[in-house]
Amino acid sequence: MIEQIGQDAPARALSRLRLDGWSIMAVLIAGVVLLPVAAVLWIALQGGWEIWPHLLSTTLPRYVSNTVVLMAGVGLLTAAVGTGAAWLVTLYRFPGRNWLQWALLLPLAVPAYVGAYALVDFLEYAGPVQRALRALFGWETARDYWFPEIRTRGAAILVLSGSFYPYVYLLACAAFREQSGAVFEVARALGAGAWSRFFRVGIPLARPAIAAGAAVVMMETVNDFGAVDYFAVQTLTTGIFSVWLQAGNLAGAAQLSACVLVIIVLLVTLEKASRRRARTHASARAMRPIAPQDLQGVKGWAASLACLLPFLGGFVLPVAVLASHSLNAAQWVEPGLARALVHSLATGGAAAFLCVSLGLVMVYGARLSRRRLPVLLLPITAIGYAVPGAVLGIGTLIPLAAFDNSLADLVLRLTGVDPGLILTGTAGALTLAYVVRFFAVAQGSADAALARISPSLPMAARSLGRSAGQTLTAVHLPLARASLGSALLLVFVDCVKELPATLLLRPFSFDTLATRVQAKASLENLSEAAPAALTITLVGLIATALLARASR
Predict the structure, then answer these.
(1) pLDDT (0 to 100) of residue 283
(2) 351 and 308 within one domain
């Protein structure tokens, strides 16, 4: 009997590894998503290291220090602003609270690089602030007064924080609202003041959500290229562009990309380790919702001002500056703007549809097959969202170029005709990079949506003779439509705003809204950049409004 059990063990193990059709599709999708990251690591290990002595003695210490300082500064500032605003709108009533709790989301619609262009234009020598100072005090030239330097690392931290704090705000709001009001009532009854309740009760309970939001913010900070490049702050991301495009060293760029990947992995690991032992559980009984307290007088207006400042800096200022530069109607009918809009809509729409479709198929396949390999690969595919766009640009280009060259050689041998590159340097390569970059958004939404569907419903469909594919279209899709629609919207907006991957992979003379804004603004031509920037903001604003309405 024991011998029979021993013989059956390998068979059971082989059975668990055997893949069916849905499992194979899930594994193939995971392979496509993970291939760019693997390609970056491969080319980094295969290439020579001759550039590193030069980097170590010149620019690399500056790249690393600027990146670390930006991550720390933006992470701390967004955690403070997002958590504080979430605490105020959740636990208190004050003037303007009802609209401020939604207005605080609007900076999500403004890309960080757009905020950078607007801030510099607002504060520079020819901007309205310094013009007003000269007119008020009678100053003639810049030698007559002192004004702080604008294009600095500190300004970059402010702009990135104003654009990214809603990530922390959203998660902190959800965390505070999920807590029982009895916890805060007990703390108040024991004599804890407002600040004591915030630091000793609110922060510990919401710590996992705050840490997760801050981690996302720091990953977005590492990914940013447009804002830091405009502020002349050299980071690892700008270094990737310099080493590849200026020095012509692809292996060195891949090795720098590998360094960025190491930083991202360490960041995610530290975030998870910091809350590994943190456990908060809701009572089994019905929770008492939090009853907001009224803030009267000076305290109420101070709370209003505290929530208004991030909204003004992150949304109102950039939009107002851009609007002032786009009053000329002729700017809105330029053919270059129309082409950039079409390109953005086409690539963003195709990437969003593919991303959500592939994410749904992978999650459904992993759940349906219950095989170990697809289930293990499912969370790993989320790494694309943590990988900067510049890194994905390199990782996408390498396998596509290898595939194109192999296919061209095969066609040349068979037909004697060289077809050239088929995918490399096309909009298809750009779409693929978008899919990999934002696959985690679609996969996470699909996973959460399917998890909410009662298992009895697909079981009933299968018992009535429906196949797995028919069950997906007849049962899961209608029930998960809202979540999948939100994911489609989020991925589309992120694709429209994405800049680093677009700069590296776009075809020649193929402008999107993001690249048009960057190209015009880099030439200090904000008037021509303003219409494209406002169009990006409008797309993001519509998406944010729809998402805010859906979350009510």
Answers:
(1) 46
(2) no
